[in-house]
Amino acid sequence: MKKNEENKMNKKEQQLQQFIRENEGEILTSNEGVKISDDENSLNAGDRGPTLIEDFIFREKMAHFDRERIPERVVHARGYGAYGEFELYASQKELTMANFLQNPAVKTPLFIRFSQVAGSKGVNETNRDVRGFAIKFYTEEGNFDLVGNNIPVFFIQDSIKFPDLIHAVKPEPNNEIPQGQTAHDTFWDFIANNQESAHMAMWIMSDRTIPRSFRMMQGFGVNTFRLVNEQGKSRFVKFHIKPVLGLRSLIWDEAQKIGGADSDYHRRDLWTNIEKGNYAEYELGIQVLEEEDEFKYDFDILDATKIWPEEDIPVKIIGKITLNRNVDNVFAETEQVALHPGNIVRGIDFSNDPLLQGRLFSYSDTQFYRVGTNHQELPINRPICPFHNNQRDGAARYIIDKDRIAYHKNSLAENTPYTVPGSKGGFVTYPSFVEGRKVRATAKSFEDHFSQARMFWNSMSPIEKDHIMHAFSFELGKVQSVSVRQQVVNMLARISTELATYVAKAIGAIVPNVQESQVTKSSPALSLFNTKVFPNTLKVGVILETGFNGRETSYFLEQWKQAGLQPVIIHDELGVVRGTDGVELKVDDSFLTGSPLLYDGLYIGAGQDVSDNFLWKTKSYVIETYNHFKPIGASKLAAPILQSIGILGKPGVLVEQNPTTFANQFIEAMTIHRFWQRA
């Protein structure tokens, strides 16, 4: 590799190079380096005789194959990841001594794994589910893992209930149905009987759980941590990750259909855009709370079923995250990455959040079981800074320790490896004051389960409320137990009478005579409709018939690309489609290989003569796009197609009159993305 290329690589990439190899053009050998002459025939006693146990080539190949799959994650099994870097905007020295938050000139390499919670590795990626959003920062002082979700709250307050939650949400054990979905009896039975989940239930029934893309999805650290500065002052903190492109979601009908059209929808979107150079970008933010303000609010700041409203505790944006490199091998990197909220660095510490406290054991225990004793030595998990200790042996040990000393304290090696005091960079636990009797109890300040659930409802736009009501109706409509359905409606009535009444009617339940929450507060940050969105990387399906207006279409495509849109040329057949003025365009999708579900908007460019086949297939694309409230544009010659469907002049349906004006109008329509007025 050339010297200037080496200089461009960050430390993590340089470290990984020694583990990366190219097999193309190389001689086939065994893992011990023995050159192999025949890899297609077992060693037999005669050409029709039994296979001999002495065939070491067969044994090595088959034994490795039998062990190629490590245990699947119990939760977050379906995941996809990418590398990137974190760039600090300004020093946070006043808040923390964490070294990666000190110098804006230093870029910190990182790895992000996005995931689904409930399903197995083979589940559709557009199912309604919480998404994991976990980051491993490879800092100069060790790895810091921010293991979060795309929802800022959680189902439970104490992690001892986590196995119960997951047992309830997983497929029911008697028939292993349904896969990767919450629409079944045991899940909603858990929710109804553990009403601390009421707030989370509102979030998961919202459009947050069917995101358009990993690149258009928020991340939250969920738990409460501490930041500690050089003076030993501690403050409470929550972490936020905000997408630069803004927030976008799918709608339920669309999400279900995409699951059939492309079950790899989210990972394909991330992979393809990074390969094209459309890097995924986010901003890292923090909510900071002074220790003396711990009991200032009407909720407990350590309760993971509660948010810190942004109007009360603003999010301070401190840096930018850019995902700019795909993995080389999904198993070696994405599957073997071992994320753990207990991986912290000096300047970051834990709070008494009871959900976090349990995660600190559970995650590390899981990684030791799943990936192995020495999982921290794997290339994806290895820190970029040197590491030395007295740990030895264990399965799959990578490091070869030459010295004979593996204990502390010692004199034979002058008591090395040696400890480092906090004043010289050693990790020191923040000395928070702890006292109290040993009890198994929930704090009184954790008992309000409905105020923030109501605040979430108050914060939704009418369209979002409609989606939530439909989501509850669908999910509970799949529940067979009349009792469970009624119990959930009883819980919803404590949040909103309007919500409970709608759902009860849809599923045949009774609206209970209970007092709904009287909370009037709303939080604008909770509505997806209150975030600015950009057209960058949104896909435009461009349906072209032979004889389309070559000059105008070429102009539109150029303008849209400059705005960041990604046109996808669609025609009857793959190959090229020819227009006027000698314009020929490469076809990306045929009607058969493409799908209107996979585009964020649609443009139709017809020729002078429109075939019946083109007309029929185009109409099916237009109707699907229109029913999902997406923008639709058409050339003058294609306007009769829209008129025949009866959508000409409807919101978000544009017909070209003036090329310059039309190009800009269509770009603006793509930023709006959904035209809910059609409903």
Automatic annotation (TrEMBL):
| Root EC class | oxidoreductase
What family is this protein classified in? Belongs to the catalase family. HPII subfamily.
Its function, per the record, reads: Decomposes hydrogen peroxide into water and oxygen; serves to protect cells from the toxic effects of hydrogen peroxide.
The protein's matches in InterPro entries, at most eight in alphabetical order, are given as: Catalase, Catalase_AS, Catalase_clade2, Catalase_clade2_helical, Catalase_core, Catalase_haem_BS, Catalase_immune_responsive, Catalase_large_C
Q: What GO molecular functions are on record for this protein?
A: catalase activity
The organism of origin for this protein: Viridibacillus soli
Q: Where is the signal peptide?
A: none
**Catalytic activities:** 2 H2O2 = O2 + 2 H2O
Q: Which Gene3D superfamilies does the record cross-reference, listed alphabetically? A: 1.20.1370.20, 3.40.50.880, Catalase core domain
* Cited PANTHER family: CATALASE, CATALASE-B
SUPFAM superfamilies with a match to the protein in the record: Class I glutamine amidotransferase-like, Heme-dependent catalase-like
Q: Which UniProt keywords apply?
A: Heme, Hydrogen peroxide, Iron, Metal-binding, Oxidoreductase, Peroxidase
Q: What is the lineage of its organism?
A: Bacteria, Bacillati, Bacillota, Bacilli, Bacillales
Q: Which cofactor does it need?
A: heme
The Catalase core domain is annotated at 29-416
EC code: 1.11.1.6
Q: What is this protein called?
A: Catalase
